[in-house]
Amino acid sequence: MPRLAYLGPEGTFTEEALRLLEPEAERLPCANVGAALAAARDGEADGAVVPLENSIEGAITTTLDEFAWGEPLLITAELLLPVRFSLLARPDTEIVHIKRVYTHPAAITQCRAFCARELPDAVVVAAPSTAAAAQEVSLPGSPYDAAIAARIAGEHYGLVELADDIGDRNDTVTRFVRVSRAGTLPEPTGSDRTSLVVFLADDHPGALLEMLTEFSVRGVNLTRIESRPTGNGIGRYFFHFDFEGHVADARVGEAISGLHRICDEVRFLGSYPRADGVAPQIKKGTADPEFAEAGDWLARIRAGRV
Amino acid sequence: MPRLAYLGPEGTFTEEALRLLEPEAERLPCANVGAALAAARDGEADGAVVPLENSIEGAITTTLDEFAWGEPLLITAELLLPVRFSLLARPDTEIVHIKRVYTHPAAITQCRAFCARELPDAVVVAAPSTAAAAQEVSLPGSPYDAAIAARIAGEHYGLVELADDIGDRNDTVTRFVRVSRAGTLPEPTGSDRTSLVVFLADDHPGALLEMLTEFSVRGVNLTRIESRPTGNGIGRYFFHFDFEGHVADARVGEAISGLHRICDEVRFLGSYPRADGVAPQIKKGTADPEFAEAGDWLARIRAGRV
Amino acid sequence: MPRLAYLGPEGTFTEEALRLLEPEAERLPCANVGAALAAARDGEADGAVVPLENSIEGAITTTLDEFAWGEPLLITAELLLPVRFSLLARPDTEIVHIKRVYTHPAAITQCRAFCARELPDAVVVAAPSTAAAAQEVSLPGSPYDAAIAARIAGEHYGLVELADDIGDRNDTVTRFVRVSRAGTLPEPTGSDRTSLVVFLADDHPGALLEMLTEFSVRGVNLTRIESRPTGNGIGRYFFHFDFEGHVADARVGEAISGLHRICDEVRFLGSYPRADGVAPQIKKGTADPEFAEAGDWLARIRAGRV
Amino acid sequence: MPRLAYLGPEGTFTEEALRLLEPEAERLPCANVGAALAAARDGEADGAVVPLENSIEGAITTTLDEFAWGEPLLITAELLLPVRFSLLARPDTEIVHIKRVYTHPAAITQCRAFCARELPDAVVVAAPSTAAAAQEVSLPGSPYDAAIAARIAGEHYGLVELADDIGDRNDTVTRFVRVSRAGTLPEPTGSDRTSLVVFLADDHPGALLEMLTEFSVRGVNLTRIESRPTGNGIGRYFFHFDFEGHVADARVGEAISGLHRICDEVRFLGSYPRADGVAPQIKKGTADPEFAEAGDWLARIRAGRV
User: Which residue range or ranges hold the Prephenate dehydratase domain (chains A, B, C, D) (predicted)?
Assistant: First the structure.
């Protein structure tokens, strides 16, 4: 039974994701993304589950930066989890008496309409995580009257659900990934995604276009690009790429070898089954048998047989 | 004397930026980026100053999303402000007694080494802004013993500076912009930057490459690209672009008209002098006189004069 | 009634093309392509008809080079003429007695199978044109027994057609163009072609890719590219381009202005109706109304109205 | 001692090229390019020397088409030969009595100024080759008074040189190649050229741009591109490419494998030392050791070692 670290405390959406990804796993809640990944790195856990991006908030930059700068880990699975916020309070709290609400800034943004309509006089205060907000609210003497968090957090901390699904949109999704230490990669499934971090060799005009051309010329479709600051002043960035296919695919291998040749550093973050099961459209000339046949042809002509 | 809204409360780095950009302006502190921009939009203020990105933390996504989705505003100036964090406390507080530190998550990240070394037993709690942290600490009965914030915040709220320049790096920079309602653009200076938001017409493979080609073919160099989720599920993004040049430049005009034609929506965010004063390298054939000459030539051949 | 020079003598395929393009025109046969174009240039004729390319032989390089280096002329029409070769001889000649055949090298190539089969012992000698071959054969005392030429040439010179349609392929086509001195261009018809000559500014690696990108980024499809030596040593070329659309089209105008800006010289050869009547596929964002709308948008944002 | 076929008769510039390329070889003159190549193919000769392009006239299309459609041969060497034309006549001929000049059309073009100035009343007639012209003039009873050809042709056929170096330009160069049947390729020298013929899979807009991108993305610089008709009507072309590097180079191998995957047919014509000895500029990331290192890296990450 694997032991998986995750962004805790108990009751986070990340815990929900972990339970769906690995129902049997032993769960190790950690204070933040960095701690969860550290547990995976140092062997305290067999891996970790962390959020990567949210369909409203965008990238979880802490996760991106940990993947880019920390000891390398491999993404081995992803999960898309619909996000449902609940208004949670201590038993006996009435909604009309709520004056101070505690939650993560992302939830503040996503529940703005509900708060304006149902809690017009309440102050909403930023918490480090939605589960931490629920935990705080559960403490006797907390200055906060309610938390906005996952229902699961209410269950953990003995809170009552005063309102369910209070987000402005009901199609918000968070993407989580499971990571583990380097080792065997997941087998290709025909519907895979690969993630990379790329540091430019030198930040000349057109460098990004060159990188994208390495993908497009081999028919590899990007699904996500994120720029992140290198830390060396404004105007210096590195890139996270997600794209279709598995590193075992010939077209993917050639594309990322091309990046590796022209860039300062390419860090491979993993190839893993896509959560949405979408199969890539393979451009004519870029399937594995076509690469193999071209390799045979090249060997023949190099031997002078034409 | 213009009246400018800014990300308050008094004492934020944003206030510092505003004072540098517009020393004479009347200052209107606002609770958050959205409120500052709203004040600029509805006429309560003549404009606003807000942070856009940080060399460590990356984009200020609230600002990006406000620019993309809110009522249009124009960026008219930018400023690069070195970030110096101070440890601030109520008078008579000794550093050894600090158990709870309050500050913005970005400051938590950036002062990690100092906290680990000097405040190993203290809990560091996330605040909505560094100035809000200072304000909270200044209140009698605050549960927090110290704030990490700009020195200016300590002066505002009567706090004492226990330590100066406590960031892990001393070259951290935040980029601020001044915005105003639509109207006259700043004149081209020869060292300008232009900012856009672009929504794809349809998210086909190669769409990003096509957008970058619209820039490169006219010799327009990107200085920043940020992807942001459209909100419609994982895998749907729009883009922020910063690039060299002024919309009055022929090459910039043609490039962004090209984007406008092939994309669903292009929102112009402004052309304004670069804070770093760097002049663009103008590729052969893309200077204004060359565009003008080509236009004359085209008119001649369209008239049958060859 | 216009007077048109053409590649003579009477009886050439070019005469056939001229009769189809301008049945009413007065015809002025010339000794070669250069002479026909000179007649058009100096006013002796109102224009000229010359061959441009053949589906077997490829470009008529004399025509290409005249268009590139001579006094500028405008192509105003094109025609695709199926090429049918006949074996022509003086009356009373029997096929078994033919020992020497005279014709243009292109016809030698294209009638190879017929000659090998039907005239195995005959020598085939290169003539300056098929009609000149017929003319020579018609002379008393000619060393040649037969010519391979157009049937029309036989009629002109009093020869008998011994065999018809003797080409190896029966789908060979020659493309002819009518040119005139600079003046009014043909109106756009919705199915037009434009021809250019482009001299590179400097022959750096990637120069051709850059030129093609100027077309592709505006959705302008090439239909033909020919490289020709500049005369300054091996390895220095200039280019002929044919592409879809009319110079009056916004996308064409912008594309060729782009070429004009980055190249040493762009010579406009004309916009004229396509002989095959094929309408271009217009890529999203590149139709005239889309250019016009983008121009309006650009004017608005340049005026600060967003 | 190898036996090499060449474009005869004796006295052609091709013979001159052959003597320079292979001074010791036995020489087999052939009536035309096709016959010379046939001799190389069927074993009558060990190889052949034929002209490929001329700095004034451009491609020798017969050679290009033979290479594209005939039984495959390998180019194993190239030579750049300055072209010097002489006016040759039978002994006792005076220049003022010359009424009919016989020569190849290319020489007609290249000696136009001399003929206009020195032979204003002479008719210049097209011959199949300059050497054939010399041979014809040497025959008693020839209708021609003089030939324009290489001095070597005059020596062969007993003609007198009436004028030397009569071309309009004195820097005209012809490029010749030596070919042989498939077998061992020449070793890479560090200054090599590779030649290919490429047939498109389908002639969609942008197909040429895609082909060029296969080269550019691997840093392979084109030195020549020629389009030739496929024979299937106007508007259908295939391409000849010459480019820097040897097929043994990793970047060249990957580029042409890419072409092979996306095109209908790629025919390898050979890798051979450049006559001009120019070494290629190798773009960062495209040298052989960089390809090897990227291959090792890819193998490591595919094995899960990151």
Answer: 3-181
DSSP secondary-structure letter at C173? E
| CATH superfamily of the domain spanning B185-306 | ACT domain (3.30.70.260)
Question: Rounded to whole angstroms, how far apart are CA atoms A207 and A225?
Answer: 14
Angle at C63 between CA C60 and CA C69, to 5 degrees: 135
What is the mean pLDDT of the segment spanning A89-117?
A: 90
**pLDDT tens digits along B20-48:** 999 999 999 998 888 999 999 999 999 99
User: Residue D291: how many CB atoms within 10 A of its CB?
Assistant: 21
What's the whole-number average pLDDT of chain B? 93
Percent of chain D with pLDDT over 70: 99
Q: Does D212 touch chain C (CB under 8 A)?
A: yes
Residues from chain B that touch A171, judged by Cβ atoms under 8 A, are 232-233
Chain D residues with beta carbon closer than 8 angstroms to that of C235:
223-224, 276
Q: Do domains D1-82+173-184 and D86-164 have the same CATH topology?
A: yes
Q: Would the CB atoms of A185 and D302 count as touching at under 8 Å?
A: yes
Residue in chain C lying closest to B184 (CA): C304
Report domain extents, chain B: 1-83+170-184, 86-164, 185-306
CA distance D306 to chain C (A): 35
Q: Which residues contact A137 (CB under 8 A, 6 or more apart)?
A: A88, A89, A90, A102, A144, A145, A146, A147, A157, A159
* Contact list, C216 vs chain D (CB under 8 Å): 205-206, 209
Distance CA A124, CA A144 (A): 9
Interchain proximity B224–A227, CB inside 8 Å: yes
Contact B67, B269 (CB under 8 A): yes
Report the residue of chain A nearest D76, measured CA to CA: A304
Instruction: Find the radius of gyration of the CA atoms of chain D.
Output: 23
CB contact under 8 A, D304 and A258: no
CA-based end-to-end distance of chain C? 57
Q: Chain C within 8 Å of D118 (Cβ-Cβ)?
A: no
Give me the phi and psi of C210, to 5 degrees please: -60, -40
